[in-house]
Amino acid sequence: MEKIKLEVIGITYSQTQTDTYALVLEDCRTKKQLPILIGHAEAQSIAIALEGIKPPRPLAHDLFRTFAGSFDIKLIEVVIVKLVDGVFYSQLVCTDGTKIAEIDSRTSDAIALALRFECPIYAYEPVMLAARDVENDFTEEKQQSHNRGGDTTSLDDATDYDYSFFSYDELEEQLREAIAEEDYEKASKLRDELNKRK
After folding, report:
1. For the chain, which residues make up each domain, given as ranges?
2. pTM for this one?
């Protein structure tokens, strides 16, 4: 069965479901998007990996990465294997150097791990075809949001902060505090503001 390589485009806040985010993946060849609804905790973990933020204490996905590395277990790839009743199912393809194992996983966890292991993400072709309805719903949601005068909100924009009045040093201090308090949404926003000023 043909596997289609995907890349993570980003995360948007769902306008229709409370505390839900859409993880947006994209076909590397055709640029067809594949949105997957995920919860807040999973969105936060994925956002941290995308932003390269190092939390003071390891999150579950960071712990898994460290644990696997301690026993020379590598994540070769993540494959989204099926879509049933709107739910995506994935597998982690792992190796210890001598044997390969396929482990069932929630797709949000699989993507969070793929980002930490820097391994490729794939979906079987039937999944991409079956996901057309999901993509259409996502497109309609974006259009409804646009018609209300807005657009889908990114995870970093889910809470608005105004940092224009702070100095660079003050922003760096706030970033350290946000990471220490494990407020990764705020930390991501602060990091974006600091990067703009460089």
Report:
1. 3-156, 159-197
2. 0.71
Least Cα distance to 109 among 156, 63, 141, 155 occurs for 63
Asked if residue 146 has pLDDT above 70, the reply is no
d(CA 21, CA 101): 30
- Size of the chain, expressed as the number of residues it contains: 198
Rounded CA separation 96/138 (Å): 38
* Fold held by 3-156: Bifunctional nuclease domain (3.10.690)
Burial of 52 (0-12, 13-18, 19+ CB in 10 A): exposed
Cα 42 from Cα 44, distance rounded (Å): 5
Question: Other CB atoms closer than 10 Å to residue 187's CB: what's the count?
Answer: 24
Looking at residue 155, the DSSP 8-state letter turns out to be G
Q: Which residue type occupies 96?
A: D
List the structure tokens of 22.
Answer: 């859409």
